[in-house]
Design brief:
This protein is an alpha+beta fold and 138 residues long. It has three helices and six strands; from the N terminus they run ααββαββββ.
Amino acid sequence: MFNPHLTAEKLNDNHNNMVGHIGIKFTEVSDGCLKATMPVDHRTKQPMGLLHGGASAVLAETLGSVGALCYIDMATQAPVGLEINCNHIKSAREGFVTGTATPIHLGKRTHVWEIKIHDEDENLICISRMTVAIIDKK
C-alpha cells in the first residue's frame, strides 16, 4: 500500500521543523526505500568536530517515521516513534551523510525499519533499527 503521491520534492517542502533546521533533504522515495542526506557542519557536529551521534539519530528517526508515513492512510493514521537504537560505527568530519531506510515489517499497528547511514565514501557511519507505532488520528 505504498503511497506514490509522496515524492522527495513534496517532502522537502515541509521543513519548518528540526528536519529543515539541520539541513536534511530527501533524495529518493520509492516502494521499499527512502533516502535523505544531511550535512556534516556546525549544526550537526559535536564539540570535538565529529558528526554528533544525536544528529545521526535524528536522521534515522526522520527516515523511519517518514518511511512509515508512505505506507499508511494519512487521513486517519499517524506514525510515531516507539523505539530506536543506533550503533555508531564510524564518524564523519565534513561533507554529507546519506541515510537509507528499508522496511523490515509493515504491520497494521507497528512498522520496523532499518536505517543505514553512510558517508560520501560509502563508509558505514551508523546503523539503526526503529519501531514505529501506527496510531489513529483523533
